[in-house]
Amino acid sequence: MAVKTIGERFYCNICGNEVSVIKVGGGELVCCDQPMERFDT
């Protein structure tokens, strides 16, 4: 899933890592060789 806005939160379904976006640079977040999922807040 592409990063679009500051403050978005993503998590890894495999290891549980969580990421909060502080600077948008485009692209997709990947962890454990899988795309990270966005938290729906």
Describe the structure.
The protein has 41 residues and is mainly beta. It has one domain: Rubrerythrin, domain 2 (Single Sheet), CATH 2.20.28. It has no helices and 5 strands. A 3-stranded antiparallel sheet has the order 2-1-5, with no helix packed on it. Strands 3-4 form a two-stranded antiparallel ribbon. A hairpin with a 2-residue loop joins strand 3 (30-31) and strand 4. The chain is globular. 5% of the residues are buried. The model has no long low-confidence stretch (mean pLDDT 92).
Can you tell me the overall shape? globular
CATH fold-type name? Rubrerythrin, domain 2
Structural class comes to mainly beta
Which CATH class applies here? Mainly Beta
Strand order of the largest sheet: 2-1-5
Our estimate of the beta-strand percent is: 25-35%
- Main β-sheet description: 3 strands, antiparallel
Number of helices: 0
Q: Which segments are poorly predicted (pLDDT under 50) over 5 or more consecutive residues?
A: none
Number of strands: 5
